[in-house]
Amino acid sequence: MNGVDTRSCALYAAAIGTLICSAVLSAPASAIERLRAVELDNGRVLVHCSGPKPEPGEPTVVLDAGLGDSALVWSRLQPLVAESLPVCSYDRPGYGDSDAALPPRTSAVIVEELRRLLTRAAIRPPYLLVGHSFGGWNMQLFAARYPRETAGLVLVDSSQVNQIGRYERDLGLRIAPDGVFHISIASHVPPNLAPADAAEARALSHDPVTWRTAHHELAGFRESERQVAHAPPLPIGLPLVVISRGARLGASPDYPAASEKLWRRLQQEYVDAHPGAVHFIARDSGHYIQLEQPALVAHAVCLVAARAGVDTPGCRVRPDPVSDGR
Hints:
Helices cover 33% and strands 17% of the residues. By secondary structure, it is of the alpha/beta class.
């Protein structure tokens, strides 16, 4: 990148403590499996829904990936969740099999696109929102703007408000562009994908449309943070689980350990600002917790569903000992 510290492009997490938990999931009596392209104003968006048919008032789990990623990053989690709850993943415009969209590509734009997508695909609220990395900002903003449509929130190694300024002020690292910049194309394959999915991810990482989309989202990164920062507060009592990584992101001398400590502080500060939130630590995972410890994220979804009052027999959480991030 030109204009962005290359060491900081992956500064998306750290964690403290340990965690042992799992989810016990049983197959539903009836299930749906639907892959379809939904026409929005700016092109087609691919959405993949699976799991039991939702009962009236029962939430549908909605998954949003991080910057640069398609819905492939949910390939290990979605089948687990679908055994007990209706769940939908999608390729944001410009990723995977969805058509590209013009800039700006900020969280506010993405939230409104997602809401239109859900409406046109007849995926009715309430929604149990799950966001990874940059997708965590999108889901925080969705929950803040549409609290009556939100049943709960799970943040998976999520970006947090104030991270851009804190990294610049505290560590002298720029994790977001400010002005003209460009992205160098390189293979990007998230860990623990099935071979066919890994091959697809590698091909997508070299797709010019993918990189233009990532460029546009990076160009809007500072604005996205401002949008989340100025959003209404989350509803009091909204079921909320934050999952942070436990494995260090980088081990080379060029990767500052202080960045990990700062990320821990940002994650914990977010939890502290939301009474009742649960903070899990993915002891054995890096940034892609949903691929490295998918049962943990399924556990979090089950917990949020239970706290939202959903009586789903197939989503029983085993009472293993767990520790939070405090």
